[in-house]
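Dear colleague,

Following up on Tuesday's group meeting, I ran the structure prediction for the two-component complex that the binding team flagged. I've pasted the input sequences exactly as they went in, so you can double-check that nothing got truncated or mislabelled along the way. The structure tokens for the whole assembly follow below. Feel free to forward this to whoever is handling the docking comparison.

Inputs:
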Amino acid sequence: MSANSAGAGAYTGSPGATTNHQGERPTMLKVTGLQKIYNGGASAVEAVRDLTFDLGEGELVCLVGPSGCGKTTLLKCIAGLMPPTSGTVELAGQSVTAPPPGMAVVFQEYGRSLFAWMSVRANVELPLKEKRIPRGRRDELVDESLEAVGLTRFADAYPWQLSGGMQQRVAIARAIAYEPQVLLMDEPFAAVDAQTRADLEDLIRQIWQRMGVTVLFVTHDIDEAVYLGERVLVLSSSPTVVQDDITVDLPTERDQLTTRQDERFTELRARVYAQIQQAKNGTGADQDAASVAP
Amino acid sequence: MSSQSTAPSTGSRAGASVRRAGTKVVHVLLLPALLIGLYAYSSANSDSYYTPTPDLIAAAFVELWFSERFFADVLPSLARLAAGFAVSAVLGVGLGVLLGLSTRVRALFEPVLEFLRAIPPPVLVPLMILLAGIDDSMKVLVIVSGCVWPVLLNTVEGVRAVDPVLADTARCYGITGTTRLRVLVLRSASPQIMAGLRLALALAIILMVISEMFASSSGLGFAIVQFQRTFAIPEMWAGMVLLGLVGFVLSTLFELAEGRVLGWYRGLRAANRGE
């Protein structure tokens, strides 16, 4: 069912390698030379300069970078919600110019990404209806995904009747019921409390292992990136480039307590932290370059 | 108070709910009763011919509206009202969605719409008589010319206010075209649309009466003017009372419909306030 758990071991022994990590896996998501300049009247702002990376099939990769480094811009370009100024995004070999059918996105603002006038079940089911999945299979998918996020009991509730963490789980259930090839997550846990966050992190690992879906997880939280990812891409400050590409050679089975106390975890965390500090300072003088002539 | 057994306890609970309902009725009826009493007192002590006592008005009311005049005047009025309101709703929401979704269309239409909106609908009556004659279509047109604006403007606002995150979500999940319109745009704009419809309903009653006061041979507005001109003063009052009741009933019905359509919105707002 999941090639990931087996494949994860292959990374061990190449800590800190900065080459790409697909190895024997086929590429699922390929971002090449992505640049995004916002044209704002008199001055243009280059949010993303030149991003190139790729995700192998079934990989779980975390993107981490200093705040304001254009993570959301990047994610919107990858999701096909925003055209890049230059560069390309490919999903399973197909160029992405509009939201592709094989991609699901979980946004940070859970309260604003659910349909408040629909029940939890209807929220999860709606995209499946649009995909013209027959009734029986649809019910199955909805039930399974609600079960996976532990919300079976709340299927008939409205999203606003649930807590923040539960609402985000509805969004996750909707994403997994959609059976995407790639799951994009834009700081999905930034707005939930710490305990809920830990639970949701484990939930994502679980789902990823079970479904074998390719996950790109954007976060500003270094611990989260290292805990969750098989690989961590560190972005520089805006205008953004990939500053470092770190393989997380931790065991596949992770645990909030033991993993976070692991010596290797601390090392990796320190390395990502150093990279981000460097990203912040290194491009500090270059800040003016963010504004280029229109 | 119910220490002996459970039976009296349930009895007293039922009693409490009856009492609560009673209190509510008192709350609703207290002020109207007071006002009617005040009017009864002042009209009884006045020798003005134009302020008949409530019992005269009530007698005229029963005599007038529980007769064939109900079919001759009340039903045609209500039919015009319904037609005018329905056309306004469809036109206002349809055009509002179009304008709300497209910046370009909005820029094109906005100046003209602002001008048209500024014209008070009653001054259109003479023109409408020339264009549409003096039959029902003129009256419906007058109602529409006033009612369409609150619906239109509110719909535009509601459609423009669709949450960008939700719109992105819908795009990601391939929700486009008419489904998008149905499950995202119209539902998300429904609180504003309902607010516009509520305003339109109140306006529709006013415009219905006004349109019937000109060149008309039936309807409540016509009847009231006719009573006034023939010095049938209690009947004139009975007409006004009926109009008030029609307005009250319609707004109550509207509230019920709104409760069904916007149940989620009320819950959402209550949840947000609770946090």
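Residues 1-8 of chain B have pLDDT under 50 and may be disordered.

Cheers,
M.
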